[in-house]
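Justification of resources, computational component.

The compute hours requested in this renewal are based largely on the per-chain cost of generating structure records like the one below. Each record pairs the submitted sequence with a full structure-token output. That output is archived, and it is also reused by downstream analysis tasks.
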Amino acid sequence: MIAFGGNALLRSGDKGTFAEQLSNVENTCSCLVPLIERGYNIVIGHGNGPQVGNALLRHEAGKKLYSLEAMPMDFCGAETQGSIAYLIETAMEKVLRRFDRRVVSLVTRVEVPADDPGFANPTKPVGPYYTREEAEALSGEFREDPRGRGWRKVVPSPVPVRISNIDLVERLAREGYVVVTVGGGGIPVVRDGEGLRGVEAVIDKDLASALAAIQMKADEFYILTDVPKVYINFRTPEEKAIDTMTVAQAKEYLAQGMFAEGSMAPKVRAGIRFVENGGGQCVITEAGQLFNPLAGTRIIK
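The structure output for this chain reads:
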């Protein structure tokens, strides 16, 4: 199971054009070749924070300019899940030309508890970065990025508990297909008397990918981000890269506040969840380091 980080699609300084995103995805997908050469069966999850935020902005602009009905967040999540999967499929087909593999994408709903406390405490950043003055002029709740890149809107991020059609995803993966699923953490839904209905939230893509990996009984879980390793005391004189940490060590670092919320903390929690529930190891690293067996930070039991 491989979770693409946001930089797999949009990099710092990008305008978010189609050409930019496709080029970024192609670069990330090409980094998966070493895993394919080793015979790995691959399932891909991905984030959609910038894209779903931009989709919300487009809907709001359409409402103001043309009186078009603005769609809710779960609808925007489905939109971006499909559009990003299209980019990944297009890029992966180029990468797989010399391999006997095909790519398939599933629009995926992910169930969350209706009473999840996350609904009362929005923490998940979506959309573009703003200056403080711009954020104060907009509706919604905003928080400053821990890396100092600006202010972003935050929305509820409930914990995923069930993934629709995960048995089909596992079957396709074991048959050799490269499967794209739980895009953007999945379309968040809750169960009521009539079935499943969408809710205004964004599920953390790393937690959703971890749950998918657990339910498929994956051997390894890779979280791709924009740094080669996990660091403690990040961006301080005491900064230190971690090669390997046990679940117990990772929990202790979390308790000490070593990892920023909205950045590395949810990735470490996802790795812990995978390993605690039977997974072999979780590797957090840059996509370009996948060829290097010594790269990245490994979370082990």
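Residues 9 and 234 are 24 Å apart (CA to CA). Residues 2-300 form a domain with the Carbamate kinase fold (CATH 3.40.1160.10).
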